[in-house]
Amino acid sequence: MEPRFNLVDNAIGAKFAKRFGNTSMVIIQSNLPKVTQDLVMLRVSQINGCGWCTDVHSKDLAHAGESSVRINLVATWRESSVFTDAERAALALGEEGTRIADANHGVSDETWAQVRKHYDDDQVAALVALVAQINAANRLGVIVRQQGGSYVPGMYDAVAN
Asked: Could you tell me if 47 and 76 are in contact, meaning their C-beta atoms sit under 8 angstroms apart?
């Protein structure tokens, strides 16, 4: 499968990508733990079939020192013993916030209660924004067939600073 289009090679696409990246900085700089951010982004990317984003977030987790066991079990987090209750709440929110069309309730009250139990208001705001943002990023990647495999952790650090 070949990529269809490179957004950043187009003036409008590049402007959009820059602004999209800037909004991501609000989440990245929040007090929501970075590991939690990457776990949720990895799981949502797996659900949405975004090869690029799955590549990015699995490699970022490994680069940050996360074990291969935790990274590999993200897809089956409900059946795994390696995630904290707070991470489980965040992963549930990520899944339910992604699979809106698959569930008649969207995010369940039970999941919302678990998120509120483990995260403060700023972290909840960051987590909700994160789920929306990674879903949008996944859709961009899937539509243009942005392939996974070539990401190197830190390759965008100069752009982000």
From this structure: no
Which of these, 60, 28, 34, lies nearest to 160 by C-alpha position? Answer: 28
Residues 6+ apart with CB under 8 A from 152: 59
Closest to 89 in 3D by CA, of 132, 60, 58, 131: 131
Specify the residue for token string 């961009």: 140
Identify the three-state secondary structure at position 32: coil
Per DSSP, which regions of the chain are E strands? none
Going by C-beta distance under 8 Å and a sequence separation of 6 or more, which residues neighbour residue 81? Answer: none
User: How many whole angstroms separate alpha carbon 141 and alpha carbon 147?
Assistant: 8
Whole-model pTM? Answer: 0.94
Residues comprising the chain, all counted: 161
Is 161 in a helix, a strand, or coil? coil
pLDDT digits (tens, 9 = 90+) for 52-79: 999 999 999 999 999 999 999 999 999 9
- Which DSSP helix (H) or strand (E) runs through 106? none
Report DSSP state, residue 149. Answer: S
List domains and CATH numbers for the chain: 32-160 (1.20.1290.10)
Q: Say how far apart CA 48 and CA 99 lie, in whole Å.
A: 9
Both tokens of 126, joined, read 């960051």
